[in-house]
Fold these 4 entries.
Entry 1:
Amino acid sequence: MLSCRTSLYKTAKRKKNNKIKNKRKNRNVSKNQIPISEKQESSDPEEADTEEGFSLKTSAPSHSHGVQPLGNLYLTPSSHNSRNTGLGNLQTLTDELVLEILGLLGGTHLGVLATVSKSFYVFCDHEPLWKNLVLENLIDGFLYNGSWKYTYIAACNPSFDVSSIRSSGLRVRDFYSDYLFQSWLCANLEMKPEWLERDNIPRRKGISIEEFVLHFEEPNKPVLLEGCLDNWVALEKWDRDFLVKLCGDVKFSVGPVEMKLDDYFKYSDQAREERPLYLFDPKFAEKVPQLGLDYEVPVYFREDLFGVLGNERPDYRWIIIGPAGSGSSFHIDPNSTSAWNAVIKGSKKWVLFPPDVVPPGVHPSPDGTEVACPVSIIEWFMNFYGATKEWKKKPIECVCKAGEVIFVPNGWWHLVINLEDSIAITQNFASRMNLLNVLDFLNRPNASTLVSGTRDRVNLYEKFRNTIEASFPGTIDQLVLKAEEKKAQQKKISFWDSVTDSKVGAFKFSF
């Protein structure tokens, strides 16, 4: 978990000007606090420049209910934390456990419990609790109403005027909680410039298919390709207004719910949260056929052997729409496939690690069925990104902009965050270069839990292998033979190695 006393705190640079010192003293700003409020409150450019640390989004609200990071408690004369007094005997529980328990309650019970004390009021008002209630109970879609709590209340009680309670939030003094404060902080932080400056991915434009296969697909290395989308209708037409008009009342997958595009855009306009909902729909072309006609697969990725399965193939293509801050935390693409991701509008920050390097802060289970990682993408950047600068194997990074395509080789860990409102198309595929990896993955003992994108997980291996054999006789045997030859070649001792070994042996014998 992110710790506000350690990872979040940044040492503030202080000027010798006594007036500025006094201002900071009055605000209880110390070297152990997060230097964010000064940048928001100060109108003096010289004073604002005295801080190094995190910048808040211009639309960031003051923290809900006045919750402060725990480090501030040690600077107050009273050393009183109203969080504890309001919880009574439950104060010994961690914030996470308190919220875990509250997550078992419904909206009515949360509302009642919020009247018990100021502390329970703060905890019961925690937005993720209400977000879960909305996503669990309003699976057919919802109209976002400025906050998840108001959204739930308005949906369950349409006659109730939510605006009447919108400005009645209670401010609690001397409430200190790292966990609650970090959620607000991660939701409102801007990406730091140093998180975006590293760009070490190979970039290519106009290369041949043979060059792509030789230098990137076969050695399993990522590349950013330019100029591949120049003939896409989507690149010219796809914007918010066009898509809303084209798609009408069609609903798309947004996490666990289905939403109309217009409703989703209204949500994304208002959302200020740590993990914004991401529109990620694998059936978009079936729902709105014109969407599938407005783009074509770049020439480098047209060999997709899963195509032999026709309608029985696993999910393989998605339209992706999301606001700034939305994205995907570290993962490896399903079924050992490779992928390409094309940005149509906006821009995305990518961080990729090769298959043999697990990203810092990420803990996959031994069987690969689960991956534990930080709660949010911003949290990963705050706590773990800096460590990668010292690594021998540094991640591959880039910002992929509109009109550009990134190739993500199979097995690579990758994280993606939208830097602005973005629209993209992505597809996963299996070519000859990674067919054996895919077959091996589908044939694992725990395939029933590993395989995704299809209802028939158990039989997918046999079905896919048999269809490949029928469609491309001898292909699998040829690929296996080639792989064995390559493996033997790698193990073969070179002439110079053999000479060195013989010298060592002679040296030992002489003694």
Entry 2:
Amino acid sequence: MGFFRKRSLKVSDDERTPAAELTLRQSIYPLCLVTILFFLWGFSYGLLDTLNKHFQNTLGITRARSSGLQAAYFGAYPLASLGHANWILRHYGYRPVFIWGLCLYGVGALVAWPCILHRSFGGFCAAIFIIGNGLGSLETAANPYITVCGPPRYAEMRINISQAFNGVGTVVAPVLGSYVFFLKTGDDAQALKNVQWVYLAIAIFVFVLAAVFYFSTIPEITDADMAFQAAETHADAEVGPFHKQYRLFHAAFAQFCYTGAQVAIASYFINYVTETRANTDSSLGAKFLAGAQGAFALGRFTGVGLMKSIRPRWVFLFYLSMCIVFVAPSITQRGNTGMSMLYLTLFFESVCFPTIVALGMRGLGKYTKRGSGFIIAGVSGGACVPPLLGAVADLRNSTAKAMSVPLAFFIAAWSYAVCVNFVPEYRDPADKFSTAKVGIEGSTGSVGDEESGSRGGVVEKEGEGRVAQHVDSAPEVERN
């Protein structure tokens, strides 16, 4: 019974734990475990982009209708991030959401199996909707967890490193697709049979991973912990009620616009190169997409390197600006020139999503879990913008001309990048967190090395019972 009590899936958000001041060394294991999740949804997302073109070929559907895959996948995100996953996160904790999301992912993968076998596009969209709920649940918990698990000053770097493995997953999936889905023999039935085995393997893996999360002891991070961090950084984070957290809602808007543009470009990348580049079939287009996703992954590692010496908000502004600069020529250019513009666009897209998450959560304090749901809900842009691009492409009979759609959404997202760099109400909380000494080894006030037992991340000191501190009474420590 003691074994299972230590793995309790419920923790009170009113109790402060050592997780508020984890050092880099203490956070390595939970971060590595959660980073596996980033690879999983990168792989799933990469499969979706390849299947988009595959269903156009095998089922004879239009570009606009094929975007139903993206609509089902990303349309599930608000349901998870603002609904069931966020409720579990706020009432139980991060680990239960990880397990819940993995189980939904596995169920969706199993449902996809018969749908692929019977070539049912509608049924497969339903399976993708279940998978989207699972991945939306994982993102609702994993993105904020990576951001808050460890010293606050390294939050942007941590989430970009973890998201880089998401990029690795998006590279692996199109490579697999080029050899499995787009067969040179043209045997579509065999191709679909191969796809079903991929989803069966995914289901088995995620169910095993859910068990690993259950038996692993990882620190829970409560609202009280986040209130403590906000107080220690003096970011004035908790002034005003939740509905007045305007920086959060602007970040969610930027996430909606940016993610919609990113997903639209990736979803129709194969269409773009097959239409604009001579002697390029779908199989070769999938290989080019893998190369573009490789540029995306490389951009994340490069961005992390830049963030070591340059403030993350400046790196974010530069990268998003370059997305606008390079996607614009792809509208009029053709051949290798147009494709190279999209390669560069994907390279500079790399740090935008995770950095919006990290910056948008700065200073939310006790609203961190609730606020993270709104930012992740912005991923639903991926359900709205691709159908719009597909409709324009069908209307103009040109995917290249339709690239004006993601350009417009990049410009809308750019408004947040400008504000977080030049508006003091946005800029100051970000800067105060980036210089915080919380969780830095040798700094004062650290409780991370105290001798303590743990149940779901909640501290129980020997002889004192449970240490409970309300979010509004986080202790003061010596200022550095």
Entry 3:
Amino acid sequence: MAVAAGGGRGVQSRVHEMIPLASLIRRELKSEKTEKTVVRFGCAAQPKKGEDYYLVRTDCQRVPGNPSSVFCVFAIFDGHNGNAAAIFVKDNLLNHVIGAIPGGLGREEWLHALPRALVAGFVKTDKEFQSKGQTSGTTATFVIIDGWTITVASVGDSRCILDVKGGDVSLLTVDHRLEENAEERERVTASGGEVGRLSIMGGVEIGPLRCWPGGLCLSRSIGDMDVGEFIVPIPHVKQVKLSKIGGRLIIASDGLWDALPSEIAAKCCRGLPADLAARQAVKEALRSRGLKDDTTCIVVDVIPPHSLAEVPPSLPKELNKLKCLSFRKKSRDSNSKLAKKLPVACVVEELFEEGSAMLAERLGNQPSSLSETHSSLFGCAICQLDLPRCEDISVQAASIFSTSSRPWEGPFLCVGCRKKMEAMEGRRPSGVKVP
């Protein structure tokens, strides 16, 4: 993967199957022949409160020391009630996600393990930040690009869209605003929160729906310990594979999306290289709405290495007549979300999508062949630490949301992470107290 432009704490590792480095490198070289892409990106930001942060890493490696295993990470963190959470997540989330992926995996296995690792990484980052006793919070939209495969995990209302020229604009994230998401409102109230508008003198209610205590408009975030654990850090995750014509991602905080619909944002960026497109999107948002919030945008182009254009070329007219940017409906197999290939006429293949806020469901859906081969028998699925044999508790055990007939099987949680899971599900009060 070539990249062109316009940054943890150590943990005790689990013991995994050892595979010779030479074997891993041979796998990566073989994969590189079919998955090689060029990634070009640009970033632009206009601060108002100074609570937006972004992360760009183009030098990550699945196999340390092997440049053919490079993948890219792009992320935006929109903080609220201060910037401490956004800074902490920017500095730690990537390490926690990578730390949750077993060692010794080939590329395809690594991509299959990524959705669950993202859930574990988000929850671990939230748990560590809350332990500091600070009350700020942040959204997180976290994008990993490996060849033609794009994996997006998100909490909050920052957004990532995909634009393939000649097709429809597609949303790769889900907005976790209480005002707009009835399912999330039901979950929050069922877990012990109260949802309502701000009440002023005379009992008049104003503004968007909020969660009380705290008054947060979002149902998912990282941090926000003063609101309640039912505001969960469990991300919506979507994984797709582009066709060889490539595509463009626009990742931005709500300062941009509150001003521009997804289609308008994509349209104003077309025909421009990534760096200019990011600046144009921010400029258009300010022109439309003014500077009412921090506004941050990252534009990323994923294109074939032989392409001389800065953005993916238009599709043939014959293909445009079809609904080009369409996703195959995801598999309903509870153990594997991997979908079958789409017809050649389609542009994007959906590999995985899951948005459940129940941790037992998200950690328990690992394909059995992968978990049996590469998982530690008694390691916490969140903390990544080995557990004393008397302390491990299966994520499936006694969960009211579990349908497992074998609750003695993993993955396992330590006592602290199990308490956090129960608090997020409303089965116990939050163990974190505001000083």
Entry 4:
Amino acid sequence: MAGPYFDPEYENLNIRINPPRVSVDNSSCNDCTLVKVDSMNKPGILLEVVQILTDLDLIITKAYISSDGGWFMDVFHVTDQNGKKVIDFRTTEYIEKALGPKGQAADWMKSWPGKRVGLHSVGNHTAVELIGRDRPGLLSEIFAVLADLHFNISGAEVWTHNTRIACVLYVNDDTTYRAVDDPSRLCLMEEQLKNILGGTQDDEQVACHSFSMGFTHIDRRLHQMMLADRDYEGSDTLNEVEYPSSLKPKIFVERCEEKGYSVVTVNCKDRPKLMFDIVCTLTDMHYVVFHATISSDSPYASQEYFIRHMDGCTLDKEEEKGRVIKCLEAAIHRRVSEGLSLELCAKDRVGLLSEVTRILREHGLSVTRAGVSTVGEKAKNVFYVRDSSGNHVDMKTIEALRKEIGRTMMLNVKKAPVSAQAPHETKGWAKTSFFFGSLLEKFLS
């Protein structure tokens, strides 16, 4: 006997009856733009909204989140990177379309390939994921191997934390500039990259590598890789340099007895994408945010999240609370780079990254984070660096780099060491959304 018939569109009926309402308001506040989102509630919707706003390089200065029951209501106070209102018509139109009834966040993000990871999501590129134990010169060796195997790197994002390294590389054939689907070439690349990551058989986490097939936002994917690699365990040797005791994140987990929530409070130094990193981590740890309040009083941020686990439970065990605190601390640290930021612009060519990272290594510099993008024939590479001991880079070394690298490309030092900054210069951070951020105008045109 046949079972009952269910219309496949029934699941989306509520959304069609009550489509999302999005407004971009530039009149209510003098110093910021208000983005208001009213929508049917669904798993992961908060992360989708925050993801789109941060991918547009917008700074979230305040936010009020409420998603109890079946409805999701958010108000975000945002500015551009210069602290001004968002008045560009194409940007405001994109926000309304991406979050509105005709767009839906997930569908619109697929049209922005630079922010996604996946074999099929980036056209003529193959996305390669690597994670392993970090060491001086490792990134240089990875780029050199790919160049020797005739792979061109058109984009990359690299994070390091707690002696671990995670990176997503977009590669293609250096002659045809098309994705490589030859199994023998891919196997050879995998084998050689595994040898580079190296390690002992006793270290199960030493060499994990894969060819991504899904549709995952690249920053979220890096968080997932680091979280799965348990980078939150142990102690980061650079923490004392990057985080003096007065600036270390202060994270508390308490219980709201009246409403049956766990309350996660985060107080730390503010920076771009801070809210995304925290919401991303909570989501990937299977916690649901029901209410939240976010505020920024530069240079500090205060964020409060009312959460439950997906199964409806709160964080009652001390061990569980401790794990949430450690994971959020790691999520905050991963994107922090207080060392020098070197921005290099040059005409793109095969082996460029291998050459640049070789020069950095020869000058005793270690890369703590990197972003690589290519637009047409122009390559833009950003490297956050320290010396091999984890200390701030001597300016004599920077001058030597200028002399050597400056012959073939432009070198711009974006950030000075913390010890050299005056107190008022710590307000606001150098722009960190370098990965494919410059492609926005291209994709919106």
